[in-house]
Amino acid sequence: MKPEKFEYTTMAQRYTARYPLLTYLSIQVNFWIIANVLLALVISLYSKISSLIYGIHVMMELKSMLVMAVIAGIFYGVSYGLLAHYLERRFFRNLTLGKVILLKTLGSVVLLILLLLLLRHLFWSFYIDLASEKGTNLSNEIWDNVFYLLLVYYFFMAVLISYINQVNKKYGPGVLIPLLLGRYRHPREEDRIFMFMDLKSSTTYAEKLGHLKYSSFIRDYFDDINQLLLPFRAQVYQYVGDEIVVMWSEKEGLINNFCLMFFFACQQQFKTRADYYLNKYGIVPEFKAGLHSGRVSAVEIGEIKKDIAYHGDTINTTARIQSICNEHNKSFLISNYLLSKIELDPNIKIENIGNILLRGKSEKIEIASIEYIKNH
User: Fold this and answer.
1) Same domain flag for 234 and 361
2) Where does residue 61 rank: exposed (0-12), middle (13-18), buried (19+ CB within 10 A)?
3) 238-263 pLDDT, tens digit each
4) How is residue 16 annotated by DSSP?
C-alpha cells in the first residue's frame, strides 16, 4: 500500500482541530481582503475611466489603494470574525440557516457603520486638509456618498461570505476548495477508516417519545457527537436516520488512536450530559459502533445536490460489522485488519470474537470487541 501523501485537506483539518478560532479568523480575513481588493480594483478602474472622459485628476494610485484594502481586510476580517464566532457559539446553534445568514449580515453592517464613523472621526479631517493643499475640495456630501457606497457593497459581500461560510461548514474543514477545484470530479482512491454508529433501542425510543420529540432527541444526540469531531479529526460522511457514519483518512485516524478514542469520548459525553437527557427525554443515548478501514473510491456526485460519495467493499464491511453488535452483546466491534495497525495502550481491552461470515460476504473476517478500562 502506498503511503498517504500530505494533502491540503489533511493540513486544514489538523490546523482547524488545533486552532479552531484562529482558523475561523484567518478564513474571514482572507475573504474580506479579497472583497476589499475587488472594491479597490473597481474604484481604480472607474476613476481612470472618469479621468479619461471628464479630465478628472485621480488622487490615489492603485498600489496605495491595494495596501489600504489589505489593511482594512485584516482589521475588518478579525473584527467580523470575532463577532460572528461569539454569536455562533452563544446564539446561533438552534437558528435556521436563513436566520443565521441574516443576523450575521446585519451584525457585519452594524460593525461596518461603527468602523466608518470611527474612520470619519479620526481621519476625514486629515483628508480634507490634504485635499485642500492639492486644490481638491472634499465635502461632507462626498463622505455621505462614500459611506452609502461602502454600506451597500459590504452588505452584499457579507451575505455572500456568510453563505460561503455555511457551505464550508457543511462539507467540513479542507473539503470545499478541493471540491471547487475538481479534485473529486473523477473517481480517486483513498485509504479511509469508517465508523458506523447506530443508536441502541431506537424503535423503543421512538415509540416512547413520539416522532416529534424523537426527532429532537436525535438532533441533540448528533449535536453532542459533532462537538467531538474536530478534537479527534473526524468527519461526518453521512447521517442515515438515527445512524451517523464517521470517517478519517487512515493516517489521521491512527494518530493517537483517534479512531478508537472517538467512540469512548462519545460515551463519556453522554454520561456527562445524562441529567440533560433524563430531564428532557427520560432516557440517555446508548449506541453501538463498527470500525474498519481499507481503500475506497471517492467521487463527486449529483447535479441538483452535489456531494462527495465513497464506494467500496470497506464501507459495506463496516456496516455489517456494526450490525452484529447486538448478536454478540457488544457495543464496539473492530476488524482485526484495522486492529493490527493500531498501537494499543494498556487501558484498551481486546476480546477476540472470531472469524465471522458477515451477511452478504463470501469470506469470513476476523473481528474483535474493544472496551476502554480506566486505571485507578
Assistant:
1) yes
2) exposed
3) 998 889 999 999 988 999 999 999 99
4) H
